[in-house]
Specification:
The complex is a heterodimer of chains A (419) and B (174). Chain A is mainly beta. Chain A has two domains: 174 residues, Sulfite Oxidase, Chain A, domain 2 (Alpha-Beta Complex); 122 residues, Sandwich (Immunoglobulin-like), CATH 2.60.40. Helix content of chain A is 11%, strand content 31%. In chain A, the strands form six sheets. Chain A has a five-stranded mixed β-sheet with strand order 6-5-14-9-10. In chain A, strands 7, 8, 11, 12 and 13 form a five-stranded antiparallel β-sheet that branches. Chain A has a five-stranded antiparallel β-sheet with strand order 20-19-23-24-25. In chain A, a hairpin with a 5-residue loop joins strand 5 and strand 6. The radius of gyration of chain A is 23 Å and the shape is globular. The two termini of chain A are 42 Å apart. Chain B has a single domain, classed as Cytochrome c-like domain (Cytochrome Bc1 Complex, Chain D, domain 2, Orthogonal Bundle). The radius of gyration of chain B is 20 Å and the shape is globular. Chain B has 174 residues and is mainly α. Helix content of chain B is 39%, strand content 5%. Chain B contains six helices and four strands; from the N terminus they run H-E-H-E-H-H-H-H-E-E. Classes of the chains: A mainly beta (419), B mainly alpha (174). Chains A and B meet through strand 5, strand 6, helix 4, strand 14 and helix 6 of A and helix 1, strand 1, helix 2, helix 5 and strand 4 of B.
Chain lengths: 419, 174
């Protein structure tokens, strides 16, 4: 059967077909980006002899050379004080492969001997306790698929002029994994938290002994001592052998290489929670403890670096997430926000996780501006850049969640723009 | 606040109830002695709890700074490769705030705590308590917060008046 059919009427301007047509196309199988070519009688060269054998660990196809963390950088004179970013534009779905999970380290990745590493819980408890990894493995574990986002993610968008970066280059300090481990509440119960204990202070075993204070309410609600990421023990770059994991809250608090937890009356006011991860407003007031990551989304395909081919039908796809809970809906615009159509959400819509959205777009070959706008189940709607910038100080880049706009040129090139 | 305390009290009761429910867990935490705990405890609170014995002044701190810090943080805490430690006063409300210890940091204890945890970057954990207090005093002195010969110790450090302290608010309920 011929692979041609009438293109439906757009739901929003500039050829955006929207969720309904995307779903119809999926069911009908007609409007797919893949073209089925008859190959009867032909054998490609790789079909002419047996292929490679099994191996102990797998690697991506050597043809996928772009599948690397991007923006790998460290501060002058250091190798372990900086970031690397997830290449969002080359990924689909919601799980970030562990080897591509973003990194933000303050003094490198420690080479921890698991047999010598212990978790100490002390402070305002009845019994200070020490847990080996072997011991923790015997507790009832939970696992959840959730995002982790650095509070500084997307901070490049505070620049007065749009920076020429990719989706990963701007937003790649967010990743999602299946995190498995022991609820911290269970371990705290065993230690016996005294009534005056209201916060914890978590220390890492890196050479900077990174430390953050966390309200006890959050800890008892859903914090885990994570031992596993995507089914395997944590990788060293993600806190091996154990890390704190605080769903939906700024990544810096999910202390890697977790070493001690002290139950305290209040926050310690560590360097990171005061001088760094505080949000300075343009009135000179700085907000402490802005913990949850706000509702956000970004179109990953197409996006800068992925050039469109001939005009016609394209899938517009991206990720949306919120520290407040689930994503309720994502709207997409192809005309710079003048009109919007609701995108389809992939089946896995999980709390505090990346959610994949998709919509169909009939590109007419002209210039366009693509945008996505997420709404979470608390009712929060991703704001415009102007709204996000209105209250913040000139160089205050944490917790940026403004709508991302990608311009599309007639040549099919995409770039970061403010619209 | 009274209501909140009540709620917290109820939550505390719930915690004990949960402990009972968690009986299916193996209970493998090894109880630690106070001496053992002390070796693991690096936490210093904003009110000074956790500060160790020892003392120092900016006069001696200047020498320690020249030896361990100046390469990264610059002469007098300015214009170095890494974070500025001094200056920046009156920039916080401007278009390009310069967040230094003096212009931004709300608590002086944070400075001692961070130096003890993480500095010098290539070689942390090798400064004595007296050197840590002296360095802390020196950085505070560079910002005009203490005098050059003022002695800083566990009692006086939490009392240092940080110029920007009152410009911090909590985004959550205290």
């Amino acid at each position: 059967m011929a692979n041609r059919r009438l293109i439906p009427m757009p739901e929003a301007g500039n050829g955006l077909l929207g969720r309904r047509h995307f779903l119809q196309a999926s069911l009908g199988g007609g409007m797919t980006l893949l073209t089925a070519t008859a190959t009867a009688g032909i054998r490609e060269k790789w079909m002419s002899a047996p292929g490679a054998g099994m191996s102990e660990t797998g690697n991506p196809s050597p043809h996928e050379t772009q599948l690397k963390r991007t923006g790998v950088s460290s501060r002058p004179g250091t190798t372990g004080s900086g970031v690397s970013r997830t290449p969002l534009e080359y990924l689909d779905g919601i799980i970030t492969p562990s080897r591509l999970h973003f990194e933000r380290h303050h003094s490198g990745i420690p080479d921890i001997e698991p047999g010598l590493h212990k978790l100490t819980i002390y402070g305002l408890v009845d019994r200070p306790l020490s847990f080996s990894i072997e011991a923790l493995e015997r507790y009832s574990k939970v696992s959840r698929i959730q995002f982790l986002e650095c509070s500084g993610n997307s901070g490049a968008l505070i620049a007065p002029e749009p920076v020429p970066l990719t989706a990963g280059g701007i937003h790649g300090l967010v990743s999602a994994s299946e995190w498995g481990g022991v609820p911290l509440s269970v371990l705290l119960d065993e230690a016996g938290v005294k009534p005056e204990g209201k916060w914890i202070v978590a220390d890492g075993a890196d050479s900077a002994m990174m430390s953050r204070s966390v309200p006890l309410d959050k800890v008892l609600d859903d914090a885990i001592v994570a031992l596993y990421q995507n089914g395997e023990p944590l990788r060293p770059s993600n806190g091996y052998p154990m890390r704190l994991f605080l769903p939906g809250w700024e990544g810096n608090m999910s202390v890697k290489w977790l070493r001690t937890i002290k139950v305290t009356r209040g926050p310690a006011m560590t360097k990171d929670e005061t001088s760094k991860y505080s949000d300075l407003r343009n009135d000179g007031i700085a907000e402490l403890f802005t913990f949850p990551m706000d509702v956000k989304s970004v179109i990953t395909s197409p996006s800068p670096g992925l050039t469109l081919g001939p005009k016609g039908l394209y899938q517009v796809s991206g990720i949306a997430w919120s520290g407040a809970g689930k994503i309720r809906r994502v709207d997409v615009s192809a005309d710079g926000g003048q009109s919007w159509a609701e995108a389809a959400l992939d089946r896995h819509v999980l709390p505090m996780c990346l959610t994949r959205f998709r919509t169909a777009w009939n590109w007419d070959g002209g210039s366009a501006v693509l945008m996505s706008r997420a709404t979470d189940d608390a009712g929060s709607v991703q704001p415009s850049r102007d709204t996000v910038m209105a209250r913040r100080a000139g160089n205050s880049f944490y917790h940026y969640n403004g709508i991302q706009a990608w311009s599309v040129s007639e040549q099919g090139h995409l770039s970061n723009v403010y619209a | 606040m009274y209501m909140r305390d009540r709620i917290v009290a109820i939550c505390a009761l719930c915690t004990f109830a949960c402990a009972a429910l968690a009986e299916g867990e193996p209970g493998l935490g090894r109880e630690m002695s106070a001496a053992e705990v002390a070796t693991m405890d690096f936490v210093i609170m904003a009110d000074g709890e956790g500060l160790p014995p020892g003392s120092g002044s900016a006069a001696t701190g200047a020498t320690v700074y020249q030896q361990h810090c100046v390469v990264c943080h610059g002469e007098e805490g300015k214009n170095g490769l890494h974070d500025s430690l001094a200056g920046g006063r009156d920039t916080i409300r401007g278009p390009m705030p310069n967040k230094t210890v003096g212009s931004y940091w709300p608590y002086a204890t944070t400075l001692f705590d961070y130096i003890r945890r993480a500095m010098p970057y290539q070689n942390p954990g090798n400064l004595s308590n007296d050197e840590l207090y002296a360095l802390t005093a020196y950085v505070l002195y560079l910002n005009g917060i203490v005098g050059e010969s003022d002695t800083i110790d566990a009692g006086s450090l939490p009392l240092a008046e940080m110029p920007n302290r009152d410009n911090f608010v909590w985004a959550i309920e205290r």
